[in-house]
Amino acid sequence: MSIDMSQFYQTFFEESFEGLDTMESGLLGLDVGAADSEMINTVFRAAHSIKGGSGTFGFTAVADFTHVMETLLDEMRSGDRLVTEESVDLLLLSVDCLREMLKAVQDEDEIDTVRVADVQKQLEKLLNGETSNNTGTEKQDQSNIKEAVEGWNVSFKPFDYLLKTGNDPARIIKEFSLLGDFTVKIHTDNLPLFKDLDPELLYFSWELTLAGNVDKKDIDEVFEWVDEDCELSIHAIGQTSPQLNKKEEKISETSINNSPTPDPTSQEKPSASEVAKSTGKPKTIPKNSADQGSIRVSIDKVDALINMVGELVITQSMLGQLGENIDSANIERLQDGLAQLERNTRELQESVMRIRMIPISFAFQRFPRMVRDLSHKLEKEIELKLSGEQTELDKTVMEKIGDPLVHLVRNSIDHGIETPADREAAGKPRVGLVELDAFHQGGNVVIEIRDDGKGINKDVILNKAIEKGLVSENDELTDEQIFDLIFSPGLSTAKEISDVSGRGVGMDVVKRNIRELGGNIEVKSIEGKGSTITVRLPLTLAILDGQLIRVGSDTYIVPLVSIIESLQVKEAQVNAIASTAELYKLRDDYIPIVRLYDIFELEPNSKELKDGLIVIVEGDGNKAGLYVDDLLGQQQVVIKSLETNFHPVEGVSGATILGDGTVALILDITGLIRLSREVRDQAA
Q1: Cα torsion for 146, 152, 155, 159, to the nearest 10°?
Q2: How far apart are CA 573 and CA 678, in angstroms?
Q3: Fewer Cβ neighbours under 10 Å: the N or C end of the chain?
Q4: CA-CA distance, 162 to 141, in Å (whole number)?
Q5: Rounded CA gap, 265 and 165, in Å?
Q6: What is the rounded CA–CA span in Å between residue 266 and residue 92?
Q7: Which CATH superfamily hosts domain 359-538?
Q8: Model confidence over 482-535: pLDDT tens digits?
Q9: Which residues are identified as catalytic?
Q10: Where are the alpha helices (DSSP H) in 412-506?
C-alpha cells in the first residue's frame, strides 16, 4: 500500500520554518571561540531535522544543501572548529538561502540554483580550510591521525525507538561494510523475555571494527542520519585519544521527548550523480497544502474549551427539560438557566478566542538578526533588549503587525541611534540601546519601541512640513502634533537617501496599517535623550466594541475606536460650500458632514440637521461628521466578513447579527469618507 506523502507537506514546511527560526536565534547567541554545547546542539538538531524531512519527501536539493551546513555545525559541536564571526555570518546567510529554497518548494517555484551553488561553495571553502581560522597545528594533528590510522573501532548503541524513525541498523551496518574489511560483535544483554518483546523497539547494540587507513569522514557519513538517535563513539586503532561523537544524556532526552522526523535512510540514498542532476524542481505539491493556515494550541486551552462545551451541554439539557413542562412555577428556574447559558456562552467565546492567541515572540523573533545586520551595515554598535515576549495577541493581528514593527525598528536604528564616535562625543556609551516591550493594558496590547539615541528635532520636522505645505508658518502646534507629522506622506528628514530609510515613504503606510487594525500610534521624544513609539492594538479582530446608530429604520455599527465625540447640531455652525458640501465648525476645525441616508439611499426620520445627531469620526487621519437619527447604545459585536460571505461593499467592513436576530452592517470609516467624497464630486 502506497502512502500519499503530500498530506504531510504542510506539517513539514511549518516545522522546517520553525527550525530555521531556531537556527537563526541560536547562531545569533553564539560567542566567538569554543561553541556553547547546548546552543550549538540546538542549532545542529534543527538542521538535522530539516535535512531528514527533506530527504524523506524527495526534496534532494534542500537535503544536499543542509548536509553541508550540518557538517560545518558538527565540526563546531565536536570542538574541531572554533566559532568565528565569519562562520556565523556564513551560516546565517545559509539559513536565509535555505528559507528561500523551502519557500520555493512550497510555492512550486524554481529554486535559485545559482544563489544556492554560490552559498554552498562558500560553505565548502570554509570546510576545506581556505578561510578557516583553525591553526596549522590543528590541521597537522588531523593529518597525522589520518596517516597513523590502522583501523577504527566503532561502538554503535541505538536508542530503543530507532526503528520507529524508519531507520534500519542492518542497512547502516551493510553500508559500513563497504568501507573495507570489518568484523562485528552484537550485544544482546538488553534483550527481554519473548513475552515482553515489543516488535517496534530495538534492544541490540554493536561493536564494529574496520581495518585499513579509512578517512573518519567516510565513517561519519554512514552514521550521519542516526547520530541524534544513538550513542556513538569512534576512535582510531593505535591512537591514545578517541574521537568521540558520543551524545550527552541531555541530548538523548531531547531526542526521545520530541517526535523524530522520519529519516531518509529508510529509502535508498540518491547517488552523487542524482544529486548533481537535481535542479531544485520540487515534486508536485497540492496548492491547498501551501494555502492552509494552522496554529499550535497548548493542551490546557483545549481542555478549557472541552470543559466549557460540557457545561453548555448540561445547561442545554436543563433548559430542554424546562421547555417540556413550562409553567409559572418554572419561570424562575428558566431565568436562572438562561443566565447560566449567557455565562457559559461568554466563557466559551473567551475560550475560543484564546485558542487564536499566540505569543508576540513570533513577531519579535526576527529583530535580533535584523538589528545585527543593520548595525554592521551602518557601522553602529547596538544592543537589543526584548521584554514581554509572552504577551499574547490574536494570530491575525500578529501577521499584520510584523511589517510595521520592522519599519519602526529600522527607523530607530537608522535615524535614532548615533554612531559610536557621536555617542562618545555626547557623553553616551558607545553601544546604543533599542528596546521592544509588549504588555496588556485596558483590553489592548501595547507595544513600545524605545531607543536612547539623539531623539527627534522638532524644528527640523516642522520646517520640513512647512516646506512640503503640510502646515503653515502661522500654525501653533503642540509637540504631539509636530511628532505626528512624521507619519505624513512624503515627509523625510534624512540627509541622504539609503535603502534603509529616507525616501519619505513608509511611515505613513505604517500608521495606515495600524489604524486598519483598529489601533493607533503615538510618538514621544526628548532631543538628545531618545524616542519612544507606542503602538496600541486590539487583542483580536474577530470582536470589536461598537456604537449602534440608527438611520431611518436601519441600524449600523460604528467602531468605538473611530469615534471622537457625538453632539447635537447647532445650525449656526453649519456652513454650505457651493451647494455640494456641508462643513460643521467644531472649535477651530471645519469637519465635512456625511449624510448616511444619502450614501446608502435610505429614508431618514428627518433631513433637517437640527433634528438629528452628528457623530464625529476619524479614519486614516481624516475627520468627518456622520449625520444619524439616533444613538442606540454600545456593545461588543462579532464581526462577519462580507467579502467571504458576499462580496466587498464600499464603506462597509463587515456585518454582525444583533440580539434580535437582525443583521447590522459595520461601517468602514476610512472607506465611508472616501465614498462620500466621490458622491459629492459626482453631485458637483
Answers
A1: 60
A2: 24
A3: N
A4: 35
A5: 9
A6: 30
A7: Histidine kinase-like ATPase, C-terminal domain (3.30.565.10)
A8: 888 888 876 765 555 455 554 444 688 888 888 778 788 889 999 989 999 999
A9: 48, 70, 411
A10: 420-425, 458-467, 479-484
